Amino acid sequence: MLTPTDQSCLHQRRHQLGQQFEGQALLWSGVAPSRNFAANQFPFRASSHFLYLAGLPLQNAVIGLEAGQLTLFWDEPHPDTALWHGPSLSRAEIADQIGAETHLPLSAVSSWASHAATLPVPSSATHQQQIEWLGRPVPPIQGSQDQESNRDHHLANALIQLRLQQDEFALAQLRQAAEITVAAHLRGMRSTLNHTSEAAIRAEIESVMMAHQCPTAYASIVTVHGEVLHNDAYPHALAPGDLLLVDAGAETPLGWAADVTRTWPVSGQFSATQRDLYDLVLAAHDACIAAIQPGVEFRDLHLLAAQTIASGLVDIGILKGQPEALVERDAHALFFPHGIGHLLGLDVHDMEDLGDLAGYAPGRQRCDRRGLRYLRLDRPLRPQMLVTIEPGFYQIPALLQNPDLRQQYGDCVNWDRLAQFEDVRGIRIEDDVLVTPEGCQVLTSALPTQAPEVEAYVQGSTA
């Protein structure tokens, strides 16, 4: 249920949208896809743009917005629904909850169809419904400038400006997601010595989220193969000497996400080589967070992480040369190929359904450089923006065994020295960081990052 404060925030969002976007807008919530037959469905997740303005995850609903006023289009549940799913609120009660001035059956959407802007939804069935009801194509929103005259493009830009900075309703949800995620990671650390498989640690972590009625915000990564950046399989045993990389985040029942990564030794103690590289990644993590304040370019944070990692790898002896020149050549990207982070909010990569339109400031586009091509965010930071900071070090065979890359960087990589670090497949440290007027606040700071404290949690020597 939404509180009066929540309802006030929703009203303010719609009022602000009305000031930035003229005309009618329709946003679909979507439907739960079927797994293998119609009645056996995957869990429902409403479209994030719908959730941002309606607040509740209503299935098969549409909201209409005009001049800050909200119309709910939704059909009353069939009487038989109560037999299988229990009683539900009426359309009038739902409309009162979300603060809709008007509520109508779903079929009444047709009265808005000829003039309304919209945004495409991930559900293919609902996307087809959008096309049929609006009588026009609803293509994906991209960052290309040739779409500036498109009304859907204008709606996307207006929503981006609202969603870039989190209001009090959002922050309350995001803090809740962060708190539950921290507790889940701590459970994973503390239970590691009692288990022998990735899957068992995943179960411990996700059980904490489930106990708070939170699904995962994305497929959890719980793996001893941290070099596989989006590893979503859990078949491996835990062996002495392994590092376990855990990237897992809770999503609140209203859809707001956390995104956190920690890496810890399954035996409870880093080896000397693991500790050297762990501390290097942590140095990049800490340097970026210390630099966050309004006006700082996120791209500069990425380059700061790259510079820190390159300098550390030179000190360790894995890279050879001047760190500045190595970063200019993108040599660091052999070991740190992804971006330093991304927006976080209702989506774990917030608003990434809009392509680079949300992540890249107007007039900017992705760079082809190896060290910059995967940067998800290229904007100056503003107060109340929430971002992730997640540097890493990985030994990815597809990169390190690529003959062209070995030739290109043969003069600056000490391959013999690198071989001494074979017990490090992947390390990543990630936190959720809120930009404040004075600097920043780490919402997930209760989860340890310093190696001795991480070891203590795994060993069970902390309270």
UniProtKB/TrEMBL annotation:
BP GO terms, sorted: proteolysis
Alphabetical list of InterPro entries matching this protein: Aminopep_P_N, Creatin/AminoP/Spt16_N, Creatinase/aminopeptidase-like, Pept_M24, Peptidase_M24B_aminopep-P_CS, X-Pro_dipept-like
SMART domains, per database record: AMP_N
CDD domains, per the entry: Prolidase
GO cellular component: cytosol
EC number(s) per entry: 3.4.11.9
Spans through the membrane: none
Keyword Protein transport appears in the UniProt entry: no
A molecular function GO annotation: metalloaminopeptidase activity
Pfam families referenced in this protein's UniProt entry, alphabetically: AMP_N, Peptidase_M24
Domain Aminopeptidase P N-terminal: 5-132
UniProt enzyme class: hydrolase
Catalytic activity: Release of any N-terminal amino acid, including proline, that is linked to proline, even from a dipeptide or tripeptide
Domain of life: Bacteria
Keyword annotations: Hydrolase, Manganese, Metal-binding
Cofactor: Mn(2+)
PANTHER family: XAA-PRO AMINOPEPTIDASE 3
Family: Belongs to the peptidase M24B family.
UniProt protein name: Xaa-Pro aminopeptidase
Highest classification ranks of the organism: Bacteria, Bacillati, Cyanobacteriota, Cyanophyceae, Acaryochloridales
